[in-house]
Amino acid sequence: MTTAAVATATRAMRRPARSRSLKAWYRNGTLVAGMVIVGLLVLAAVFAPLITHYDPIKQDLQNALLSPSADHWLGTDKYGRDVYTRLVYGARVDLRIGFLAVLIPFVVGSVAGALAGYFGGWGDTIVMRIVDVFFAFPFYVLVIVLVFVFGSGEKSIYLAIAAVSWVAYAKIMRGELLVAKKQDYVVAARLGGMSHGRILVRHIAPNVMSQALIYAMSDIVLDILAIVTLGYLGLGIAPPTAEWGSMILDGQEFITTFWLQATIPGLAVVVTSLGLSLLGDGLSDLLSPERRK
Amino acid sequence: MTRATRIRSVGVAAVAALALTACGGGSSSDSGAAGGTPTEGGDLTIARQADILSMDKTTTFDNSSIYVMEQIMEPLFMVSQDGTKVEPWLATDYTISDDKLTYTIKLRDDVKFTNGNPMTAADVKFSIDEDTKTGADGWGFINAAIDSVEATDDSTVTIKLKYAWAPLLADLSLFSNGIIPENYGGLTSEQFYEAPVGTGPFVWGEWKQGQYVKVTKNPDYWGDGPHLDSVTWTVVPDANTRKLQLQGGQIDIDEFPDWSGFGTLKDTPGITATAFPSTRLDYLAFNQLRTPFEDVHVRRAIAYALDREAMVKSVLFGNGQAADSLLSPGTPYYAKNPDAPQLDLDKAKQELAQSSQPNGFSTSILINAGDPNQVSVAQIIQSQLKELGIDVKINSLDATAVRAARNAQDFDMIILGWTMDIPDPDEWTSFAVDPEGGSHSAYTSYNNPEVIAINKQAQAETDDAKRADLYKQLQEKVADDAFAAYLYYSPYAYAMSDKVSGFEVTPLGNYHLEDVSKSE
Amino acid sequence: MLDRFRFVPIRLLQSIPVVIGVTIVVFFMVHLLPGNPALTILGQTATPERVAALNTQLGLDKPLWTQYFIFVGRLFHGDLGTSLTYQRPVFDLVAQAVPITLSLLAYALVLSLAISVPLAALAATAPGRVRDGLVRVFTLLGQGMPQFWVGIMLILLLSVKLGAFPVGGYGQTPAEHPYYLFLPALTLAIAMSPTTIRSLRASTINVLGADYVGTARSKGAAGVSLFRGHVLRNAAIPTVSIIGVNLGYLVGGSLVIEKVFAIPGLGSLMINAIFARDFPTIQAVALFVALFVIAVGILTDVVYTLIDPRVDLSSKERA
Known about the structure:
The complex is a heterotrimer.
Chain A: H1 3-14, H2 29-46, H3 48-51, H4 83-101, H5 103-119, H6 121-136, H7 139-150, H8 154-180, H9 184-191, H10 196-233, H11 244-252, H12 260-287
Helix pairs in contact in A: 2-4, 2-12, 4-10, 5-6, 5-8, 5-10, 6-8, 7-8, 8-10, 9-10, 10-11, 10-12, 11-12
Chain B: E1 43-48, H1 63-69, E2 77-79, E3 86-88, E4 91-96, E5 102-107, H2 121-133, E6 146-153, E7 156-161, H3 168-172, H4 189-194, E8 202-208, E9 212-217, E10 230-235, H5 239-247, E11 253-255, H6 259-267, E12 271-276, E13 281-286, H7 296-305, H8 308-314, E14 321-322, H9 345-354, E15 362-368, H10 372-386, E16 391-397, H11 399-407, E17 413-418, H12 426-433, H13 440-443, H14 449-460, H15 464-481, E18 484-489, E19 492-497, E20 500-501, E21 517-518
Parallel strand pairs in B: 1-10, 1-11, 15-16, 15-17
Antiparallel strand pairs in B: 2-3, 4-5, 5-7, 6-7, 8-9, 9-10, 11-19, 12-19, 13-17, 13-18, 14-18, 20-21
Chain C: H1 7-32, H2 37-42, H3 48-58, H4 64-76, H5 90-124, H6 130-144, H7 147-161, H8 177-208, H9 211-218, H10 223-261, H11 266-276, H12 279-307
Helix pairs in contact in C: 1-12, 5-6, 5-8, 5-10, 5-12, 6-8, 7-8, 7-10, 8-10, 10-11, 10-12, 11-12
């Protein structure tokens, strides 16, 4: 067993082992809770200007470092900006990048993994060796180095995350394909003379996508954590843009005096991750209940 | 290229400077041993943002390294505690010939290197010559006026000059002219500076890169002290961690605490936070090799758009004052300049309208990522220039990379700091406004013949009042040209445990650890 | 018995292509820099001599494949290049930092087991009950918290408010290290626990339902002794693999945590090198960490074989 194979196993085991039959989605408590949390966050991000009337970027140095009050619910930062406002606008940045960042690796990784698994042979070996190489680098090491190499900024973050996380999708899809291609309906379709492309797209894809989708949910969490971490290290989204990681970095300076400033953005990340994890768990209940132990 | 490196990389987290005021700095630092005899023994730990880079005194420019090497290798003369003059140190006295071209210097006869050999005139000659040799690659330019150094006898050195040069003794007080054994004690210079030997109160101990550097007591030191058994400088890049470590008693001295935490430190029982007067100026330099900074209106527009009072309040937390001149108030011939650009948004907009970029432009500012003050100042500048339609991108690099980019003039705007190394304004004015000064006018490529002429005149002028007038003119013209936007003058912040006594910092930034002791 | 370890040499052989791949990735990092890497590193108007010197040092003046072989050749001699910041062999810098990071990781591993085993046992012995639910909440939160933020929060609570632990640093004597490293190790342990708990919980539930546990029970074993003697050992088997994988993840996390706690290990070395654009150092850390992860993978398989008599990796087709 390679470590990468174990990684897939890990993921499979991450889901709790409660058994549950397929129910209507709205009776799936986990899914609903996740949807509510994520939904509220997305709404807050989209309608940020309606929720708060302060500017997240404009400085007001005369009103720096105010304690929480009716005017500033969470106080102001060292540049006199409303912390609550920056929190809400920060959701825009972190959620947007988190969601968008999974797209490229999802597509690239799934396709590579599916092709490798379906056709096997040399292509499979090469793809899997590349996957092993990438798995050897811890996530943060490669992301940090790549963001540095590409230069800081949003585009670099997408590229770096894509370069690092496609391998997980490839691994998952390959595993799914190895099983799927031996299924009766695929064998039958082959015997019926259907082309490989048609079989992959029409018959296999709809059946195997769910695992990649479920993984994508936890991947968004990983990506958001990565974006926040890059922001904290000063390698992420450049100031003055409101972003949770750089807010924590700024707040850390005042940990003995205004400890809320480092605490609150972190809590926002935790709530977001929680919502997405619940959503992912719920989704996996819904999409592949038969896989539950 | 001669003086390119003269600026001591103040960039390194250095928070620093201002001489004139009482600085609101907190109590004096000698609380522990006031009147009593200093405690002998103990290990002192100083936490700082940046690691040392090298112990080669002739080619090293960062303060972190310099403050350490000064404890090991000593010069013939030493800047006085108030930073205004120099006093004999390894020398006892000197005579100057009538033509002012020959200096005869007597040496102390009781000084030994820590390798056991006595210090002689031959060692002095070797040490100064080695520095002179580095020329443009090191501090050699500081000795440019020196024609020859001769060991007349074991305890006498004769220095001949190419031309009359008043700051010679000040130059000899620079650490780069510190005295080391002749011929590096038989080693190569690389080997020697791996574990340097000098006459100082402390002996080189060990260096773990990125972690700490340690020196130990020189028991045979010729002067008073040292009282401590050892001194360790630990590298703690995060200012907040340093502060908490000091409060928790893990370290004894916090070098350059954040101003944001300075107040808290002052209020902590058992901790003394002191703002030592300095000669520090922080300024925003414009690279005139790059468009549109060759345009004086653009530079002036930026200089008028910056709210220095707000920076003093929110970056220095009130510990400093808005800058109005090239020279800091602690520097001789500083002239207060009411006409120097201060915040005036209308004037800023007028200037920009007259410039090549009436509708604003995009540019960038280079800062040291490890310096929280620069991080804050850059964000404030970014925000304030936005009012003018100037978009500023902040590029953060570490101190070393910033230095490289600065020397290569690879930046649009850069935040720099300056502290005087010798008590004479010429060191800084020649560096800042004379393109021949070696740094292309403090890395800006500023070139105004009128200003250069005034500077040359001031160098040659011996009459004090006339010299003062020349430097006043110079300060006014340079401010009007806005070759840089002066930001603020700030003191050196240090916070230390009350157990520490005798720790004093000169306006030039140096400290004498042989005077320091630590009670139980 | 020894036959079961026939797979070890094969496993080692099979990791050769991965190691080669890793060196290629690390080597090409420098070529991903925009423009002339030497120029980028030195700045636009760097002197031609310095550019030439750096080109030679990085071997950039030769054909790509030659460069790569020179790079690998140097690696074999332990030559990772010279740090641009310190002008010293990068190998020395890495060698200084490695023991610190490894001890942090080992410490974190121990703490994470100390957290995971009891929690997993609590949850597994009462699936679906309140305490199971609470443990699940812990795992969900643990996974969703940014590690560095957990570190900051621990500093806030245990160092700033209670004054119980140092806020950062590594300590100077060996006796001080465990005390200084406690909070960072705990931070990493909290990050690592959720997956371990989930795996242990699931496998414990399986084991508890197995025949031999029933037999042991009928023989009068109960409570802690039953758990320790029979359940834990068997439940631990799949968990070992998961810990192995997680250790790789932990290495990445520790890089960031070192920065939070000012620990002079590989992480601080790398992050500082990033801001210094000290490319040889960045390459060396990335290379070391990747090789470490590969080694842990192999080690995990060995341990797996050791503790599980049923496993015979040498006879199994590799995935």
